[in-house]
């Protein structure tokens, strides 16, 4: 499996980052505008192990339904989900909230597998990796903006 990591230092406590991410309703506010994203079901807060969340990426006729199960929650430190149904052969996503001297480090680690073929590898390198890194960059940027709005530097 391929693993991509993205880390950001944020001037908020790890517990606050965890609370924000444990409310799946916040996912729409940090997701990029393209492709369109919406929560279909499973929007309970706080997120708990065993929760199933269903999302729709794309448009009515063109898009993908994605079902994920929350596989692990460590209060204040970690939320992990795994794809049940969706576009990948395998998918595991960890959100880590690591205390630091200046607040917390937000770390996303995405482990995934497409089709194990030369075409699958080409699609991964040309499309999937750049799209995932761009999505994580956007989400971290939006998380920072939402959680630091109104703070003085």
User: What name does CATH use for the topology?
Assistant: Alpha-D-Glucose-1,6-Bisphosphate, Chain A, domain 4
Overall pLDDT metric: 92
Number of strands: 7
Radius of gyration: 16 Å
CATH architecture: 2-Layer Sandwich
Termini separation: 41 Å
Commentary on this structure:
The chain contains three helices and seven strands. The mean pLDDT is 92. The protein is α+β, with helices and mostly antiparallel strands and 153 residues long. The protein has a single domain (2-148), classed as 2-Layer Sandwich (Alpha-D-Glucose-1,6-Bisphosphate, Chain A, domain 4), CATH 3.30.530.20. It starts with a strand and ends in a 5-residue tail after the last helix. The chain has a seven-stranded antiparallel beta sheet.
Key features of this structure:
single chain; 153 residues; alpha+beta; Alpha-D-Glucose-1,6-Bisphosphate, Chain A, domain 4; seven-stranded antiparallel β-sheet
List the topology elements:
Layout: E1 2-10, H1 14-21, H2 27-30, E2 37-41, E3 52-58, E4 63-74, E5 78-85, E6 90-100, E7 103-113, H3 118-148
């Amino acid at each position: 499996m391929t693993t991509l990591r993205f880390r950001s230092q944020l001037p908020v406590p790890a517990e606050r980052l965890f609370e924000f991410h444990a409310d799946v309703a916040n996912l729409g506010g940090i997701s990029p505008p393209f492709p369109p994203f919406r929560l279909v079901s499973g929007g309970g807060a706080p997120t708990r192990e065993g929760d199933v969340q269903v999302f729709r990426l794309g448009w009515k006729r063109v898009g993908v339904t994605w079902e994920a199960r929350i596989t692990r929650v460590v209060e204040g430190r970690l939320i992990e989900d795994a794809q049940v149904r969706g576009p990948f052969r395998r998918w595991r996503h960890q959100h880590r909230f690591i205390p630091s001297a200046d607040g917390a480090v937000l770390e996303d680690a995405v482990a995934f597998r497409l089709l194990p073929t030369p075409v699958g590898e080409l699609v991964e390198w040309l499309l999937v990796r750049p799209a995932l890194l761009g999505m994580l960059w956007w989400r971290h940027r939006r998380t920072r903006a939402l959680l630091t709005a109104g703070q003085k530097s």
